[in-house]
């Protein structure tokens, strides 16, 4: 009893902690609704299993023959069983009932959506039912029939065992003798089971429109003309056999039902398996394109509806491939916003320049956002300076980790399209205290992606602060302290709650420490995605949350989706595979195979107090409407979103990746062409990875103007190449998909163009190079190779940034920043060069602005964002910090820095390289040889100088 009480107390403390957490967050309704639903379903499941099983056993026992003759073996069975009879007759139903209750309670979401179901307003083309029938009702009905079948089958087995044990069923050689009472009970129970199987088979016919076949998802020709009629026939046959069992219970003859069962088995083989095979093999396979056309068209139409791509605007695009002078004049605003700072590359620069202390950190992959600065929209690369308690080293005590170091500090933003003269990011918001163009905002980050598992904050008014706020710097290296004043977690204002959380986190310090007072709060579950997932368990959050400064506070913006795999005729896609690319690693999702997705909710998580706000972004989504009936107070209308928040929400990347995975084939809307796979596309592999990579190139956010748009807008884009493999693969562009990701800036009102998909389709005879082909050209070009070899001198690595594809100049422009990084441990990448390509022409210069001018005949007609950088300034190699992460840099030495002599040699080498290429173009071999000799001599001097420096 003591052990049971201890276990019960631990369970209670866990549940009570959940109540405190949800109550503080304001989502207690979510927890209590789940608990009530689970409890009610457990009771229903327990009773629905235990009562019929108990009644069946009791009836079999009470109607047993009083004077039955037993053989010796049965006598021994009864001797063993009789002392346990009462326990078994009650224990078996109870145990089975518990298992059934647990199983049914886990289907609380299915039950609640059935009770609160919302019609879709559209019908399926096969049966004419509302699509909501397949999403909400059919799965529920099938689960009920499956549960009832399990109850009846277990009852039948236990009835047979009980009757055999007590002599109601006797086997004498080949003769089986069954008493009247046993016959009636077994026959009725078997009849119920066959009747349920008939219902199950009847429901199975409707499931054909959501099942995945060899050709499409949904009922194809064979399903419609053989499988569905066959299941209807078998369902009726099962019901007839069930009636035969009922007749047997009355007249006592087993021949009819047994023959009926045998015929049912044979019929299931002939009608359910053989006949569909014959239809497929001899009717469909010889003429599939004709016979399957109607059903393929259903699949195309409903798949495009389910993934929100039905309204994608397809634009034929005759891409120009000749770089003419002034070609970019009409795209000046787009070229000015081309991002040069790769968020996957420049994180070390943030770490070295803005980390300041070892207990701060930045993520390896930064985020992108945009802000209005001086009346213009500026694309930015952003990250919060989050806490890293493991950086404390020996000082990582419980007190420091959970009482003193409680939060990160500040949001750092760099211009996406600019660089300093040395190749560093141009910071728009930086420093401690935080200063910059983003204005005044609450900089403290108590809730972040890498926050500690828990922190204890808060103190009575007038108490000296103990939380580290930020290091003030200066000669005395002073620190400022603060006290959390928000409402971010459950209060530890009494002994019991201290004990609850001491047990939850297995730390007696929570209970014993004098730093825990009546004003203390405990902050935990601090990852923004996890907070959204717990606040709305029916939603699937996007894999990436990004920070923004909104209305004077740092908030995490999280997109969330409603999903189903029961949308009729819609192609099923593995979400984990579709969203995986070089930026997002494959991940395990609780709901993976889906065929319907909507970005139904935009969520925010306040970085200071952790408050979660859910906004209904797609209030027409029937699944969201259904869940709003279940949890009526948790989701706010979009009308409550501020204009500042609207400027930062965007079209989500995971939804876009799902759509591009589908559009690779479903951009083809003709059934015949779809069947022949005449124009199937796929997403290119990441061009900067090795040739054997399986990672896909991710989509990118850029401010650009697509054909069909009047002005540039914040967009998300991806490219397509032909779907092929091995030697047949061709890395040429076939499609360019972009979506308007700008939601506008009006309070509670989405911009009209938001979510508009535009698909540029390139002619098959127009061999515009794809990303992989362009990257190969960059890597193999002799001029580029020699320039890169120069950059690699002095113990440096060259890093190719993201390869961007921008529709400008009537064609497609490729832009790739090139970073140089010293091999030292504390170095960071510097943007030194930019590669550009248009058609078959490429250019490689110090700035994007200069590269565009060179590429387009000396004058592109537009300026890039780095046009203020002096291309004649002495080049720099990456610097190394002092290892403390305080943003300072040490004087460079012979391996990482450059003397004046080295700078002059680099300029000379660049001039000789250009002279060599010009001579080669003119066919002047004498000048070519002279320039080559001078280049070799210059490189030798550089190597000698480098060796001397070492």
From TrEMBL:
Q: Which InterPro entries match?
A: UPF0182
Could you name the Gene Ontology cellular component terms for this entry? extracellular region; plasma membrane
Per the annotation, which location comes first and is thus the protein's main one? membrane
In this chain, the stretch annotated as Disordered covers 863-897
Membrane-spanning parts: 41-61, 87-108, 144-166, 186-203, 233-251, 258-278
Cell inner membrane among keywords: no
Entry-linked HAMAP family: UPF0182
Q: Its family?
A: Belongs to the UPF0182 family.
This protein's name: UPF0182 protein ATC03_07525
Q: State the organism named in the record.
A: Agromyces aureus
